[in-house]
Task: inverse folding
């Protein structure tokens, strides 16, 4: 996009969940959906900067919302397991302004306010050089699929 001759950068942040990092056996659909969000952000987020767009995800642990019961949140709070909403806000704020990071997934957990802060988890590495090379070859193939027309 161009505005009065100036290049505009579009910043996109999505809310995900730590269920995109970890397995929750009793929430398979929710967990699969969040894995999908993180896969989308990690892959498309690495492509979009060439279009002057950044795409990142903020992944809180349990925060108080309307998705569960007050009793559940009371139990989580009693055990010190609720993630402070301030950490979620700070994570989104860190993605604004001159930040050019894209394809990142930021984890915010219950220990955010105790010095842990915002965490960028490490993801699985390629098992061997051939697997890594296959993705190097695959990337240009996928890039052509992103072109208009």
Result:
């Amino acid at each position: 996009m161009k505005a009065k001759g100036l290049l505009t950068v579009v910043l996109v942040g999505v809310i995900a969940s730590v269920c995109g990092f970890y397995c929750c056996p009793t929430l398979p659909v929710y967990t699969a959906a969040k894995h999908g969000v993180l896969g989308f952000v990690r892959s498309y987020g690495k492509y979009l900067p060439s279009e002057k767009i950044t795409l990142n995800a903020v992944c809180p642990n349990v925060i108080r919302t309307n998705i569960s019961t007050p009793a559940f949140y009371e139990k989580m709070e009693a055990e010190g397991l609720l993630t402070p909403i301030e950490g979620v806000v700070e994570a989104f704020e860190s993605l604004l302004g001159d930040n050019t990071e894209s394809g990142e997934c930021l984890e915010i957990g219950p220990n955010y306010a105790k010095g842990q802060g915002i965490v960028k988890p490490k993801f699985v590495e390629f098992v061997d050089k051939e697997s890594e090379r296959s993705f190097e070859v695959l990337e240009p193939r996928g890039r052509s699929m992103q072109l208009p027309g």
Q: What stands out?
A: Helices lie at 28-47, 70-78, 85-94, 129-144.
